[in-house]
Design goal:
The protein is built from 34 helices and 13 strands. It is an alpha+beta fold and 882 residues long. Strands 4-5-7-6 form a 4-stranded mixed beta sheet. α6 packs across α21 and α11 packs parallel to α17. The protein is globular and about 85 Å long. The relative contact order is 0.12.
């Protein structure tokens, strides 16, 4: 917009300046000067007035008066235009009364055409000045840092203010908009958990709701009672560890130990211990999941065998000496703690009942505790006579020496597992490489150290599997070889430390086990040593993770009313339509593939708000789902194990059945969304349909920029590097033509190259590159922002696109600002390194700058020059969808 003209008093200033005060020279510097206007007036006054002079003087006075009136009206019109009052006409009617002399008075009415200066853009529209609009505008403005050029560094331009105003909390390795909204959602859940009147007011009659709320509050209170947790100490962990030990050593009613040879005893013990850990959601040795058979029937739920999570987040950490030494120290501290606690409690009995292992706890109740583990001689079915801790020496190791040796051996064992595992970029990005179906008997022969029939019996699936899909066939082969070359006491130490690492955070903070595991977390995430966050925030998150369908029911009731679901769904559908329209314009996609892509987009199942699980979100349905969960007000550790066991139980009940179309993989309060390829569904929990992502009251340029980005991202996943390999029915097959697939590969290679050039600081003076192959699918998903932009423009209606006060930006600019601002995040270098190594999503800065650099509409909106960093030449841009 052009700046308004100066007011009349400003304009008169130059006319009143004193030339002598400015040096007594004319503009050309000459000494001589013409008579001034004052000189001429004085001369005329001193002369006698003729009749003609009198007439001319009256006319001159009238002219001067009219001129001053016109100038004032002109300035007023400009002021109104600036303030939003506008001024559509250019004709002004003026009534002027002038008194020239004592002898004559003239009254005249004059209609004059006054040309107003034209604005450089459209006339300014009236902005919304409601309290909601003012607050929304203030939030946007406060997040900006206009010292940055948006064409050079859009991420910091959009988020610099927010980043400065939200320093990273000492107890966190990263914190951003997603985290802030998650905290806000948890605050809603906390109010429900802490309000004694909530159930009485809203659910006075429904017994199912009272049951659910009792479990939710019981879990929360057991977490909040820190004094009691510290008083209990490590006892719950010791019970868990001793259950694992007893099972590993053959203390089970499932098999007759006397009738088996040593190899069978070892196999059965390892099988029972692994099955028990897996039944509590604790990773060890391998992983089983239940999902569709994507190459045969995507809706038939079958068994998938894969590699487990490791004690360290990624295999690269095992090659870093400082991290490996710290990890070794943490494991040693855990082993010493367990040994000392078992010594102190000598003579008492195992308490497996609270852990609730089916068919095992009764046996364990009658067993005496071991003074420390492993007992001598070791292994109990016979040693190999070496001097590595396996024979009955006259001078055996003490618990400290043994813990030191075993910790080092466990780290080496895990290092071997890491090296045997498939790289994450292949595991996440190549569905053909990870689809390897075999008869279950093949897996049994490949990995004879596990008795899979007994393993599956632990989970009591309704349908016994005959076929298994192996994600990486080389892994079970390597695992078998590793197990053959691992001492029994080392393997037991591995199982024990896996249990401790997974559950020590459930203990009181004064316990050595909690502090040991916390020290590892602090180093890997860059958290300030000893800094602990708000306990209620932690406990609310634990409730949400453990009983998320139940807490989600009440969260939805509190936050997801009005037309949120309908309007959120409309945004998603608009983006799908925009995507379908763009297909005919994509230069690398032929007509046949474009038609098939449109059919897949039409076939997408859209889920918004909350899960209908199992059939509806009724209290009775959710209560039935959690009926197996046992909650005690004074047993936080066991409460979480019970909840984990419930999740594993329901997971295994899906085996051999058809996919339930109502199933969700996220809870209603989750701040996230996902695309499920075998189900061909995009899912958006109510948790993310909240400000700053979405509000049904927002102007569309904000809703489509923020939540529209989320919707477009998930839609684009259906056509990314891996999603494109699933057809509209979720079946794994090449449904694009070879020409289209080859064209897409060129674009994918461009994206991989672009993001592989980005780096993060490691906090030690070095740089670590983003893994462009690992992040390819997510980076391609982010390119979907263009579909959100097109969808917004297609529905554009200026009457609904009201402006916000104080924002001197176009709607197009505000669309991209809304997109950029949801990615604001402060992050420690250690957490950034961990993310680059493990997360298929790129760092947030590159999710913004890397994305808009491939969107010409962004450069157009911000008038970026051809030399701007975020406006590279078209030939260097990775543009997929045009």
């Amino acid at each position: 917009m052009a700046e308004p003209r100066a007011s009349t008093d400003q304009e008169t200033a130059p006319l009143l300046r004193d030339p002598e005060a400015e040096g007594g020279q004319d503009y050309d510097g000459s000494e001589e000067r013409d008579p001034t206007f004052l000189d001429r007036v004085t001369s005329v006054v001193q002369e006698p007035l003729t009749p003609l002079t009198k007439v001319l003087l009256v006319i001159a006075l009238v002219f001067l008066l009219l001129s001053s009136v016109f100038i004032g009206l002109f300035a007023g019109a400009q002021h109104k235009l600036k303030e939003g009052g506008g001024g559509g006409g250019n004709r002004v009617t003026v009534t002027a009364t002038t008194t020239a002399t004592a002898t004559s008075t003239d009254v005249s009415t004059t209609t004059v055409s006054v040309p107003l200066p034209a604005p450089t853009g459209p006339p300014e529209e009236k902005a919304c000045f409601s309290s909601d609009c003012i607050l929304l505008s203030a939030n946007i403005l406060s997040s900006l840092d206009t010292s940055y050029d948006p064409c050079e560094n859009f991420y910091d331009f959009a988020n610099g203010g927010w980043l400065a105003n939200h320093p990273l909390p000492a107890d966190k390795g990263n914190f951003g908009i997603f985290n802030a909204l998650a905290q806000s959602n948890q605050q809603v859940i906390r109010q429900i958990l802490e309000s004694s009147e909530y159930s009485a007011i809203l659910y006075p009659e429904e017994s199912a709701d009272k049951t659910l709320l009792k479990k939710l509050r019981g879990l929360y209170q057991s977490c909040m009672n820190e004094d009691q947790l510290n008083d209990i100490g490590p006892t719950p962990l010791i019970r868990l560890v001793e259950t694992v030990q007893a099972l590993y050593r053959g203390k089970t009613t499932i098999v007759d130990a006397a009738a088996k040879d040593d190899a069978e005893k070892e196999r059965d013990g390892l099988t029972a211990a692994i099955a028990f850990l897996h039944s509590r959601g604790i990773d060890a040795l391998f992983d089983f999941s239940i999902d569709g058979d994507v190459a045969v029937d995507p809706n038939f739920m079958t068994l998938w065998f894969s590699q487990p999570k490791l004690g360290l987040p990624a295999k690269e950490y095992y090659n870093e000496e400082s991290i490996r030494e710290l990890y070794n120290d943490v494991l040693e501290r855990l082993l010493v703690t367990i040994a000392e606690e078992q010594e102190y409690s000598e003579g008492s009995s195992l308490s497996g009942a609270s852990i609730g292992d089916r068919g095992v706890s009764e046996l364990l109740l009658s067993e005496d505790k071991y003074k420390w583990w492993p007992p001598w001689p070791w292994p109990p079915w016979g040693g190999d006579g070496d001097d590595d801790g396996g024979d009955d020496d006259e001078d055996p190791e003490d618990k400290y020496e043994r813990a030191h040796r075993l910790a080092k051996a466990v780290v080496d064992f895990e290092w071997k597992l890491a090296n045997a595992s498939l790289d994450l970029d292949i595991l996440y990005q190549d569905p053909y490489a990870t689809y390897n179906p075999v008869p279950l008997s093949n897996l049994t022969k490949t990995l004879p150290q596990i008795c899979f029939e007994e393993y599956f019996a632990t989970f009591t699936p309704r349908n016994f599997p005959e076929r298994v899909i192996v994600t990486y066939p080389a892994y079970p082969v390597s695992l078998s070889d590793i197990l053959n070359n691992t001492k029994s006491d080392v393997l037991e130490a591995y199982l024990v430390t896996r249990a401790a690492l997974a559950t020590a955070s459930h203990l009181g903070m004064q316990t050595e086990a909690w502090q040991a595991v916390r020290s590892l977390d602090e180093e890997l995430k860059g958290i300030k040593k000893g800094a602990v966050g708000d306990r209620s925030e932690y406990c609310a998150s634990q409730v949400e993770n453990a009983l998320g369908y139940a807490s989600g029911r009440y969260f939805v009731n509190e936050t997801f009313g009005g037309e949120s679901r309908e309007k959120g769904t409309q945004v998603i559908q608009d983006i799908i339509e925009a995507f379908k329209k763009s297909l005919s314009e994509i230069e690398w996609m032929d007509e046949e593939s474009a038609k098939a892509a449109a059919e897949k987009a039409d076939a997408l199942r859209i889920k918004v708000g909350f899960p209908l699980y199992p059939d509806t979100l009724s209290a009775a349905s959710v209560a039935a789902y959690y009926s197996r969960v046992k909650i005690s007000d004074d047993a936080f550790f066991d409460n979480l194990l019970s909840a984990d066991a419930n999740e594993e139980y329901w997971k295994w009940q899906k085996l051999g059945k058809q996919r339930n179309p109502n199933d969700w993989e996220m809870y209603a309060s989750t701040v996230n969304a996902y695309y499920n390829p075998p189900g061909n569904e995009i899912v958006f929990p109510a948790g993310i349909l909240q400000p700053p992502f979405f509000s049904e009251k927002w102007p569309a340029y904000l809703a489509y920029g923020a939540f529209g980005m989320v919707a477009a991202h998930e839609l684009t996943h259906a056509f990314d590097s891996s999603g494109r390999l699933y057809n509209q029915d979720g079946k794994l097959e090449e449904w694009w033509t070879n020409t289209t697939s080859a064209g897409f590969q060129v674009k994918q290679d461009c994206i991989v190259k672009q993001y592989s050039a980005y780096t993060v600081d490691d906090g030690k003076g070095g740089k670590i590159h983003v893994n462009g192959n690992l992040t390819a699918g997510e980076n391609i998903g982010d390119t979907g922002i263009i579909q959100a932009y097109r969808a917004w423009q297609a529905q554009y209606d200026s009457s609904k696109e009201y402006l916000l006060p104080g924002l001197n930006y176009t709607r197009e600019q505000l669309f991209f600002i809304a997109f950029g601002q949801v990615w604001a995040q402060n992050i420690k270098p250690a957490s950034a390194v961990q993310r680059v190594r493990t997360d298929p999503h790129s760092p947030n800065q590159y999710r913004v700058d890397g994305t808009v650099s491939n969107v010409p509409e962004f450069a157009e909106a911000f008038n970026c020059s051809a030399r701007a960093k975020l406006n590279p030449p078209r030939a260097k841009q990775c543009i997929l969808w045009s």
